[in-house]
Specification:
The chain is 60% helix and 4% strand. It is mainly alpha-helical and 145 residues long. 12% of the residues are buried.
Length: 145
């Protein structure tokens, strides 16, 4: 997550947010927080219209960095935001895990039943093709006889 998004969630100025992090920089190794390079920032700026005159490249926080913020930012708002962010990370991890498991099960089933379901797949493909012959246009046509 980016510093300005987190600052907005914690309801503090981005400048103050970064100051608090820098006062505790030992808590944020490179795998917790890093600063975007100029190319990454330019790509991001094209996607995010509301960025004004930033004087520095933004910082990005990993899941562990967001967790560490709870030891740096002490307000009640910071605690609540941190709890919600961590819950979102847990749900995302669960969703990704279930997706991987589902894909694995589907692959197993497909390999196991490939020959048996060939008839079913062929029938579905046949239903998906357009019928041959002349089709009438859809809609009302007055009878001019």
């Amino acid at each position: 997550m980016l510093d300005d998004d987190l600052a907005r969630m914690y309801e503090v100025e981005t400048k103050k947010f970064i100051q608090a992090v820098k006062r505790n920089i030992d808590r944020f190794p490179d795998d917790f927080m890093f600063q975007l390079d100029l190319n990454e920032f330019e790509l991001l700026r094209k996607q995010k219209k509301e960025w004004g005159g930033r004087r520095y490249l933004p910082y990005a926080f990993t899941e562990q960095g967001v967790a560490m913020l709870s030891s740096v930012l002490k307000s009640k708002r910071a605690i609540q935001v941190n709890i919600e962010i961590m819950r979102a990370f847990v749900k995302l991890r669960q969703l990704l895990k279930s997706h991987v498991e589902l894909a694995r099960k589907l692959d197993t089933i497909e390999k196991k039943y490939d020959v048996q379901f060939k008839i079913v797949f062929d029938a579905i493909r046949k239903l998906m093709t357009e019928p041959e012959g002349k089709t009438r246009p859809i809609g009302f046509r007055p009878n001019h006889d």
